[in-house]
């Protein structure tokens, strides 16, 4: 028997006006709910520009507590519409202690749980280690009215260990709020390779774990505030994949979009029966996975 769930991804261009960004999200969440979505995923750090292009202590003023104004607003919206909303916030835990945090608001408006980003990049244009402390909540799925969600964030999407640990803890879907894009100065062939690698690795997580994957990316060009680089052109391309990696829906590269699809959650059970990867894992011989490198 099928167990269907309609999901929506809100792919958005962000501005420096946090109130306007939240207003846009609210409008699009309402539209997604009207279209039948019961699970709605927002992109990474959706309230602000992607401020990690530079290292500036003053930008820590963008952080907010959880619970706080955004979770209060989105929680009330989730309760009103009877939907689950997965948000992505710059969390202020204490003075000088911040996280890149995904928050799940359940259909009754409460915070069902949070996930603090575990893998923190430090690359040109993505100076996240300056702002974010690595997560300390582990890889724990969050139970909601629509199912058990394995929520991860952006850079986590490159790590099969993170997806597998969520699967081993009983997650029914993997969700990745994301902010990733091109250096506009890179040649077109390099840009294409990067985007395809991003899509491929996440589809592989769906295949390897027999569960759907939802990846919500931002879109639009955001200049480098320092003027030292050409900024980032976020490549959009948000997508929803089924448990065999099949693309159920995919957004454009260069435009805001509400992306929806209906997922048959029971199909994952059927897939795992014919591809029983969890059964055949050699857990007795994987000890070296906890080492940095086998010298």
TrEMBL record:
Positions of the CN hydrolase domain? 5-265
Annotated keywords: Hydrolase
Query: What's a Pfam family in this record?
Result: CN_hydrolase
Q: Which InterPro entries match?
A: Aliph_Amidase/BUP, C-N_Hydrolase, C-N_Hydrolase_sf
One GO term in the molecular function aspect is: N-carbamoylputrescine amidase activity
Gene Ontology BP annotations: putrescine biosynthetic process from arginine
Asked if the Swiss-Prot or TrEMBL record annotates the protein with the keyword Transmembrane helix, the reply is: no
* Protein name, entry field: Carbon-nitrogen hydrolase
